[in-house]
């Protein structure tokens, strides 16, 4: 299994990830990732990250998930998402985006980590 791509930079509205074009929001998993388009699942700041948002991470081998809450922690996480992950014995970390990036990069060296990252509010 390939390691998870490292995040090399995050500033308001832009993230840089190894092997991917710069963008605003990302889904990352062991061996790859892609831009995260909230419209795919109807995600909004409230109720927040949906179970459908994290399914792709699990499908791509993530056993640990880092969920960023945004730079101002305005992105919520739907309780159904946490229950969905808990039912699958997935370790979940929630944090403000810069802290989430730090934690994700730390875990990327040793764990099958996936993450959802929101680089604005």
TrEMBL record:
<dbReference type="Pfam" id="PF04430">
    <property type="entry name" value="DUF498"/>
</dbReference>
<protein>
    <recommendedName>
        <fullName>Mth938-like domain-containing protein</fullName>
    </recommendedName>
</protein>
<dbReference type="InterPro" id="IPR007523">
    <property type="entry name" value="NDUFAF3/AAMDC"/>
</dbReference>
<dbReference type="InterPro" id="IPR036748">
    <property type="entry name" value="MTH938-like_sf"/>
</dbReference>
<dbReference type="InterPro" id="IPR034096">
    <property type="entry name" value="AAMDC"/>
</dbReference>
<keyword id="KW-0963">Cytoplasm</keyword>
<dbReference type="GO" id="GO:0005737">
    <property type="term" value="C:cytoplasm"/>
</dbReference>
């Amino acid at each position: 299994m390939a390691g998870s791509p490292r995040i090399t930079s995050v500033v308001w509205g832009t993230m840089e990830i190894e092997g991917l074009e710069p963008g605003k929001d990302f889904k990352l998993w062991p061996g790859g990732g892609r831009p995260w388009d909230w419209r795919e699942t109807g995600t909004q700041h409230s109720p927040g990250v949906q179970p459908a948002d994290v399914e792709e991470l699990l499908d791509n081998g993530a056993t640990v998930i880092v969920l960023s809450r945004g730079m101002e922690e305005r992105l919520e996480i739907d309780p159904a998402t946490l229950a969905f992950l808990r039912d699958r014995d997935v370790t979940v970390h929630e944090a403000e985006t810069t802290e989430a990036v730090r934690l994700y990069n730390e875990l990327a060296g040793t764990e099958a980590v996936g993450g959802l990252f929101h680089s604005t509010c």
